[in-house]
From TrEMBL:
Residues 30-492 form the Aldehyde dehydrogenase domain. This is Aldehyde dehydrogenase (NAD(P)(+)) ald5. Belongs to the aldehyde dehydrogenase family. GO terms for biological process: acetate biosynthetic process. It comes from Steccherinum ochraceum. Keywords: Oxidoreductase.
Amino acid sequence: MPQTFEYTFDTPVYKGKTSFSTGLYINGQWVDGSKGTTIDVINPTNGQLVTKISEGTKEDVDLAVVAAQKTFDTVWGLNTPGTRRAELLNNLGNLMQAHFDELAALEALDNGKTFGWAQDVDVTDSIATIKYYAGWADKIQGKTIETTAGKLVYTRHEPIGVVGQIIPWNFPLMMMAWKIGPALATGNCIILKPSEFTPLTAIRMSHLIQEAGFPPGVVNIIPGYGTTVGAAISEHPHIDKVAFTGSTLVGRKIMEAAARTNLKNVTLELGGKSPNIIFDDADIDQAVRFTSHGIFWNHGQACCAGSRIYVHAKVYDEFLTKFTDKAKSLKVGDPFGLDTYQGPQVSQIQFDRIMSYIDSGRQQGATLHLGGERHGSEGYFIKPTIFTDTKPDMRIVQEEIFGPVGVVIRFEDDDDVINQANDTMYGLAAAVFSKNIDRALQVAHKLKAGTAWVNCINQLHPQVPFGGFKQSGIGRELGEYALENYTAVKAVHVNFSLSVK
């Protein structure tokens, strides 16, 4: 039998209890993995064990696929009208609202993000996303197409069937909502793998999914490692679609596995090295506030982080002074502490990776303007870090660090900064700050990125599509666009004539 995780939160910002099974969720039941092994869940604030969860395997993915396909063929998919799917999604959203603080606390405990941010962004936006797609569930429709007088032709947007979803550790709950919302609205069954670093909210959500009334087998949640569960989902011959959010390197492997096996449909939301351009006519105070949010929010662990900060020479000194003061003012510490802005990085692996990039910046000749050090003596805390005097070919300029490390780069010419901003294999997001809206929009339109923010940064909404150009991904999350990822279009020809001409 799987363990039961019980935890009492007694913090300055939240006091409460949680208790739930830590097993795999397959066909409506919580079970041990086929090998009976477990995964340690580590508290990033101190490196100590939080709990152990059941570890999934390839064999467990096989069991989940069989259950999901049976459910899809009998009581889900086209067997359940959109109005019922909408009702179940709204039930889930309401249950998430009822467990709002508990979900935020689990996210802070597991990931290290602050409880306040988890409340204001992660849980709030996750609920909004689920309810947004509840509204779409009874509006999946095709078209009638005119051809000839003796024929009726129409299209149906049918659910794909059993889909695989692999989510990352930086926004565990929100990425789960982004994935399951459109998949369930369109009538698919799901095999979902949360990150082994941050599985707790996904496991807790399995209990809410059951309570909401979804039939067994509609959603199956299998925590495990990428090399086992992730690979099994990517290669499975009876999973016809896989959606992944994570690194570009892993995205390539998933795409290769999908092509090598059954050529399954693939959507990928991958890495980024987003430019943030501050022109000389920008509101500098506004630009500083958003730039700080752009790179230090979620401890820099955001694929759309504005990590390349281009500042016009005329305002460079003023901006750098104010941006430095802002970074110094950010409180780093306990995610459940009062006024904490930045908690720890998610793991020792990620901590070491970020520190290696900081060392690389020093070694390649960049100026370490601020930070670059561990905060405290335990856990995975890194001080907000700013580099200056960089060169375009430096690793800290070209590669995704995924931590609280920004590079501030001086520029003078509009065309030159556009070329620099586009000089990357990534194309997820970009930001432009200018009081001249014509200038801002002209530049935004020339930036090769799936999202362009003007006088703001890191703004996400359930109804607005999100995804990348170039090696930042394929397909779009959120909005009406995401529904396309989970439906297959069928054209039906009805001939009214007895003879074929």
